[in-house]
Amino acid sequence: MTAAPGADEGTALAVREPADVGGTDTLDIRDARVAAAAIAGQSVRDIAAAEGVSERQAYRILAKPGVRAAIDRAGREMVRAAALVLRSGAIEAARTLTRFASGELAAPPAVRFAAAAKVAELVEDRRAVDELEERLEQLEARSASAEGWRR
Fold first, then answer.
1. pLDDT tens digit string along 34-75?
2. Are 53 and 114 members of one domain?
3. Within a domain: residue 94?
4. Which of 32, 94, 106, 115 is the most buried (most CB within 10 A)?
């Protein structure tokens, strides 16, 4: 298995030679190139031209379950990476909002009010998420104990 040509490290795709009939999560080389191009944001027209196929054929390739899965998986990985970047700045952002709301940073009253409102909104959102996580954990524990009882 190798990475698809044109795929960068963060979007490496498992590929196989067309003759290899191995696992279901591998793509042949052309399908992997098409998936990598789609992940990179190329248009279907550009993908078709690069592969020497019609746009209709490019759409067919993109519709294959393995190609769709690879594109979806890469999309989830990109969102996860973006979320990590945002999380790393979240504490500083919260401090800045708090400094505006408290008047520590010079700002017009409307900015201070908006910052205070945002802080309150974020605190409430976090409280709601914490509550939901706790309820989910309780339900999972009950479900696990009920399954163990039935066995």
1. 999 999 999 999 999 999 999 999 999 999 999 999 999 999
2. no
3. no
4. 32
